[in-house]
Predict the structure.
Amino acid sequence: MMLSSRFHRHPRIACFALALAAAVLAVWWRFDTDIDQARERADRGSVLVETRCGPIEYEEAGAGVPLLVVHGSGGGHDQGMAFAGRLARQGVWVIAVSRFGYLRTPMRADASAAAQADAHVCLLDVLGIRQAAVLGGSAGAPSALQMAIRHPNRISALILLAPLAYKPPPQAGSTPPLSPWVETTMLSVIASDVLFWAALYVARDQMIEVVLATPPELLAAASPTEQTRINALLDNILPVSARAAGLRSDSAVGRQLAPAPLEAIRAPTLIISARDDGYGTYASAEYTASQIAGSRFVGFDQGGHTWVGHDDDVMAEILNLLAQLEGPARP
């Protein structure tokens, strides 16, 4: 009663309060709409199958040489297919998996790279695939590497794209590590749908630089096609709440990288990175390539973690490798 009386005496306060309430409702409606669309997009096209390693979500497209696509942080089957969908139109059977803790693939007590590698094989078993090429992007690289080491007979080729990988401590990094406060802020943002969604609108360049580890000025100068690709990659991390468990696990795996018997890998191997990748994958990619006999390393001076300006080059390199393989057509 007293509040109503105050508004009558001060109509400007009443107008401001109404305008503020309307603005809050409009913002909330926009968030609610965007997050519903993001959830619908994340579910589209995927299948959840029961395997001896537990439930695994995947999406497939195309026919020809089988390619298992293992996504990076903030991804899922949708991120894998967004990248590799072009290959499905060029004689490749793309199988994009959701790793532990991403979308509908549940988190497991043992979410190590080795356990994920075993789960990749479990999925191939269900699909009736004896051998497949495996592509590990970013944080998907550790399990792809482990699959090549633990299950060499199941891999026809290994592709590591901007890989999260071990390098010896004495070896200089290609970029300085993130400062603690930046890393803390990023982990807070990617733990909340609301915060992540808001940051996409009010701090997009910073999100491109920190989350995608890509220089925003590089993207601003890129072609419209590349701008669309990178912006979609960022937007499609929503709903981040459905990927939060996987993101936390990736962070733990990244802190525990250790030497692996890379010299045991015999599969044809392609490794690609850019020197200005904000996550510093160039140095570790170069080291990994030096340890795998006969591997091909492709390094770009610019491109960031998302290889801006080089997507066609990356696709050509992958197709060139896959063209050398023999594989069953999709059943």
Notes: Strands lie at 47-51, 54-61, 65-70, 92-97, 132-137, 155-161, 269-274, 296-300. The domain at 43-175+246-322 is CATH 3.40.50.1820 (Rossmann fold). The first strand starts at residue 47 and ends at 51.
